[in-house]
Amino acid sequence: MIERQLTLIMENKPGALARVVGLFHQRGYNIDSLHVDSIEDFIPYKFIEDELDVKFSKGEVSRLVIKTTVADTLMRQILRQINKLIEVIAVSDEDSTYLKGILRDENLL
Amino acid sequence: MKLAGNDMLIQSLINEGVEYIFGYPGGAALHIYDSIFNQSEMQHILVRHEQGATHAADGYARATGKPGVVMVTSGPGATNAITGIATAFMDSIPMVVISGQVQSHLIGTDAFQETDMIGISRPIVKHSFTVDHQSNIPQIVKEAFHIATSGRQGPVVIDIPKDLTNPDDLFDYEYPKEVNIRSYNPPIKPEATQIERVVDAIFNSKKPVIYAGGGTISSNASKELIELNSYINVPVTNTLMGLGVYPATDDKFMGMLGMHGTYQANMAMHNADLILAIGARFDDRITNTPEKFAPKAQIVHFDVDHSSVSKIIEADIAVFGQVKDSLQAINKLIKDRLPELDITKFDDWHAQISKWKSEHGLNHNLYKDSSDENLILPQAAVQHIYQESKGKAFVTSDVGQHQMFAAQYYHFDEPRKWINSGGLGTMGFGLPSAMGVKLAYPDEEVICITGEGSIQMCIQELSTCSQYKLPIKIFNINNLALGMVKQWQDMNYDGRHSSISYEDSLPDFKELAESYGHVGIKITKNSDLKKGIEEAFSIKDKLVFVDIYVDPNEHVYPMLVAPNGSLKDMWLAKGSKT
Question: Most exposed: A31, B239, B307, B528, by fewest CB within 10 Å?
């Protein structure tokens, strides 16, 4: 078991953060640390805008960084469970990313 | 068009094509109920408890494939709906639940009938919305129905504060034609490379099994599944949630698998070299000890939900997408490559399964014994119900021994006919869900097979059946105790029957049903069983409550040996295991 980092891009809506945090508890995973910011600079995330065919405006989207200590097999399950949350636009761990519900084999975030 | 929030909400439901709203009014929902009063396109069904509303909507959804709609008020109205929402969530049933909320300015003040419905329901919904402004109502309703009915289906809650339904505040109303949620994209098409790998795996196997579950029903893929097996001709088993998706009377069908599955189905899974898991999720009631599950099998898993695949059992080949699309793609490719497949190579495998079936298969002729030397067997009661309804009825059930007997002995030949709470295991589900089915299909036979424990958890809905004239048939498999708990206490606790009996305080169910204006029938003798059930089926225009006193000591077999057992480890009768 090693500490792993997850990065999420999600809609900045009331209750959205609670869904992520709640999911960790509900599925029996522990959070070591959590950092959340409203995204101000969209340049690094232009590929998401292109993929979704939208232009984000300030305050609309948040970036979450979560650290958690879990086994490899469970990590994949956490990623998939987070991907199911309706307000999550993208989620990645060290070597994979779900974007628009589709899995890519690299960390894009 | 300008509308107030309450009318917007109701007009949005009408635009979605909703036929029935199952609900219960209250303070925070009064404006909405005024809008319901002022329209005639939808019928509101007034239940007697909000749990009944959610189960009725759930039954309607399972039988029709269309989303069930529930309306409740804030506070206790909302919390009473929770069990039904969780039931729908566990079985991936499309449902939209609208809960009234206290006025916006009171939220967070512990106001009268205030509860955080979004917070309470969060772990048991697919998604939820709080209405923040009237003008967002049409968009929210559209998105709620889209989310509930797409991808892996599930319940969606819309919480709406009372002031946002105020009839005096008018806003522009237009119902959106399309919906696009940028962060939500349920997978649609399966990958062609995976489809090829599946066909190769089938063609290379000698002992394949199709294991199909509820996802095959929600995806409306029964026809595609039957077509697939018309080409490959392999043994099929269904989960408790999947019964009916493959015809039970087909000779390739082995019966249900798992905890109370048939001997041949569990043995076939354990010995298979290829398992085609189709819209099934390897629940713990299926796998027994996961490490010992199907040790020789290559696993192919078809699912719309990424998180279901390789969660419990690692899949060798995963096919993501709607099961219907995946099976269509498989069928197309198999048709092209059919000359490569010699199905006679499965002959030995079929012979082995027939042997298992003849050794320890279920006895479907128990109903032929009408001697009064014996108590009524619950299995025989189900067999009579099957005979009398000619296998064509919708059957809802509650949870416990009667549920397992119904699943084992009623042969379902069509999907959406068997309606039960498989995932959550909710006692009280049977009667209200039968109401939802009967409203959807008023001309079809709708049966609720229940027990005297379960029926009392929502028995108040007998009154609703009276009000809306719902002539369903209730068969109460009455063993005077919480039979499944008692069975576990017999088997694992040396027969110490802790808190499972209420024998001296049961109501007379016949008289109880009659007091609601229904017909009651009581059957206590084996020799009266056939006649009593025939009589029940001869009554067409009234609800019939048949109270059948069965052998209180009967157990459900087969039963998987746990803990640490595999699928081949089963109790086959009292004191006898494999």
Answer: A31
Contact with chain B for residue A100, Cβ under 8 A: yes
A vs B, Cβ pairs < 8 A, gives 48
Q: Name the residue among B123, B147, B311 with its Cβ closest to that of A86.
A: B147
Of the candidates B38, B36, B43, B122, the one whose C-alpha atom is nearest the C-alpha of residue B73 is: B36
pLDDT digits (tens, 9 = 90+) for A25-79: 888 888 999 999 999 999 999 999 998 899 999 999 999 999 999 887 788 899 9
Look up residue B270 and give its two tokens. 């354990």
What is the dihedral sign for C-alpha B283, B288, B292, B294? negative
Q: Which two tokens stand for residue B566?
A: 């595999």
pTM for the full model?
A: 0.97
Q: Which chain A residues have a beta carbon less than 8 Å from that of B127?
A: 86
The structure tokens listed for B308 are: 């279901």
Cα-flanking dihedrals φ and ψ of residue B213, to 5°? -125, -165
The answer to whether the Cβ–Cβ distance between B130 and A19 falls below 8 Å is: no
Angle of helix B82-90 relative to helix B50-64, nearest 10 degrees, comes to 20
Is B180 near chain A, with CB under 8 Å? no
CB of A18 less than 8 A from some CB of B: yes
* Nearest-angstrom CA–CA distance, A107 and A65: 13
Q: Is B428 left (phi over 0), alpha (psi -120 to 50) or beta?
A: left
Backbone angles phi, psi at B567, to 5 degrees: -70, -15
CB contact under 8 Å between A87 and B123, yes or no, is no
Say if the Cβ atoms of A86 and B127 lie within 8 Å: yes
**Would you give the DSSP letter of residue B294?**
-
Q: Per DSSP, what are the bridge partners of residue B547?
A: B476, B522
Residues in A touching B118 (Cβ below 8 Å): 15
Catalytic residues of B: 50, 112-113, 162, 484
| Contact (Cβ atoms closer than 8 angstroms) between residue B129 and residue B144 | yes
The answer to whether B182 faces chain A, any CB pair under 8 Å, is yes
Tell the residue number behind the tokens 């043994």, with chain if given: B235
Q: In this predicted model, what pLDDT tens digit does every residue of B535-559 receive, in sequence order? A: 999 999 999 999 999 999 999 999 9
CA-nearest of B18, B22, B15 to B1 is B15
Interchain CB contact of A88 with B (< 8 Å)? yes
**Cβ-based burial of B541 (10 A; exposed 0-12, middle 13-18, buried ≥19):** exposed
* Residue A60 phi, psi (nearest 5): -85, -30
pLDDT of residue A103: 86
Residue for token digits 């085609």?
A: B276
Quick one: which of B234, B226, B219, B220 has its CA closest to B276?
B234
Per-residue pLDDT reduced to its tens digit, B445-456: 999 999 999 999
